[in-house]
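[recover] target loaded
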């Protein structure tokens, strides 16, 4: 019997793992900042300074004069950044690190394409940076866990498709006949998250950074929380079980 030699791609696993560590710390600090602002809403003013009129307003007990707290460093934007950092940056990168590590070993095959692996990695990181910039600028859809505007939603879709190409391509060239249960979890995650993301983020673009949901009223709310609760199940739970 001929002996086949191959090597696993551990570099992509390390890249996602390092990103997980970095964004884990960032997500924690953003969450801590948001929590402190509930108790001390003047926190942005304390760090960024303020003017005389704001000082007088604060002395009179009027927190509506908190210029920085209502702007880029306000609670609303920091809180959005925290949830996106934890869900997409921290958990997302950790899921990909685990999937790339486990898939290769359970299928006894290197990932389908190193190029696709790195395209997947960098599109995901670029998406995260775009989220940070747009949220600080006040550009968002105001939909819980899906605040990203339509160009970023498209980038998420592209990155997710790249992940799918690599996953299913590796399954196709596997060196074992059976599929271990973890692989089925990864397959289920990919299909469910793709469906949730696409249907929840259907929108009508007005400008480059402004759009309106394709749904209205109660329908929009129902679709949004169909996405919200199932995203917890299929993005934060299923791949971790795998």
């Amino acid at each position: 019997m001929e002996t086949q030699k191959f090597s696993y791609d551990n570099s992509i696993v390390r890249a996602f793992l390092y990103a997980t560590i970095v964004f884990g710390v960032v997500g924690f600090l953003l969450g801590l900042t948001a929590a402190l602002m509930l108790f001390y809403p003047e926190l942005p003013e304390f760090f960024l300074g303020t003017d005389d009129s704001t000082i007088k307003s604060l002395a009179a007990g009027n927190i509506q004069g908190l210029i920085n707290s209502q702007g880029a460093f306000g609670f609303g934007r920091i809180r959005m950044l925290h949830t996106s950092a934890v869900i997409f940056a921290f958990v997302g990168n950790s899921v990909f690190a685990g999937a790339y590590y486990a898939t290769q070993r359970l299928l006894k095959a290197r990932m389908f394409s190193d190029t696709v692996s790195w395209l997947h990695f960098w599109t995901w990181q670029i998406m995260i940076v775009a989220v940070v910039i747009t949220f600080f600028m006040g550009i968002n859809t105001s939909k819980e866990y899906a605040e990203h505007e339509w160009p970023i939603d498209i980038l998420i879709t592209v990155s997710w498709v790249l992940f799918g190409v690599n996953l299913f391509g590796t399954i196709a060239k596997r060196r074992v006949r059976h599929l271990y249960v973890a692989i089925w979890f990864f397959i289920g995650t990919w299909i469910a998250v793709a469906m949730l993301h696409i249907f929840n983020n259907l929108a009508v673009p007005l400008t480059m950074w402004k759009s309106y949901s394709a749904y209205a009223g109660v329908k929009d709310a129902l679709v949004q929380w169909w996405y919200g609760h199932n995203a917890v199940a299929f993005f934060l739970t299923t791949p971790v079980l795998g």
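[recover] notes: The chain has nine helices and two strands.
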